[in-house]
């Protein structure tokens, strides 16, 4: 019974995801076109960014990256890779593809690995949700150049569901960006998928704790009644 509140929360959030004619595209990364780029130094694993991530722009630091790799994560470097099968402990979170953002630990590397897209935030959007396999370092999520205060809402079998309040941006054209930061002390990789706009507000972090506590107390109460 202690999971009842969490299940209800997930249903409410997922229930608010439909009904948008949103301008953002390829938020689940399933539009990838796997066409090896013979001009890429990483051929046959190199793919033009426009084919790998339609709708998104890839940045390594402040520089736009014309290509990423397919199923070939970097080893200690700042990089972006499309993940399609189990490789180097990473796997697609849902569907065929997820995107791995790697913040390298070499001092000469770019400080961030990022993807961004500019479009219209749905007019009824109250929250932004995304699934991720988190790394040990930092991930920045921004909308309109402002960092979002995102936090964990629930944990699935292979991912964590995160959410952030974006109600102030509803109906505006803004840039959405995900950036894994360089960490000189450790490797930082964030595998992300299923970015969603929802009309359901995310609860405050403190409220999540109250939901969990309520579920535990409800379960304890019922256990006492049945054990008499």
Task: Describe what you observe in this structure.
By secondary structure, the chain is α+β, with helices and mostly antiparallel strands. The chain has 2 domains: 1-16 and 205-228, no CATH class; 22-199, Galactose-binding domain-like (Jelly Rolls), CATH 2.60.120.260. It has 3 helices and 14 strands. The strands form 2 sheets. An 8-stranded mixed beta sheet has the order 1-4-5-6-14-8-12-11. A 6-stranded antiparallel beta sheet has the order 3-2-7-13-9-10, with no helix packed on it. A hairpin with a 4-residue loop joins strand 11 and strand 12. The radius of gyration is 19 Å and the shape is globular. Residues 1-13, 15-21 and 208-228 have low confidence and may be disordered.
Précis, in short:
The protein has 228 residues and is of the alpha+beta class. It contains three helices and 14 strands.
Which structural traits does this protein have?
228 residues, alpha+beta, Jelly Rolls, 8-stranded mixed beta sheet, 6-stranded antiparallel beta sheet, 3 helices, 14 strands, globular
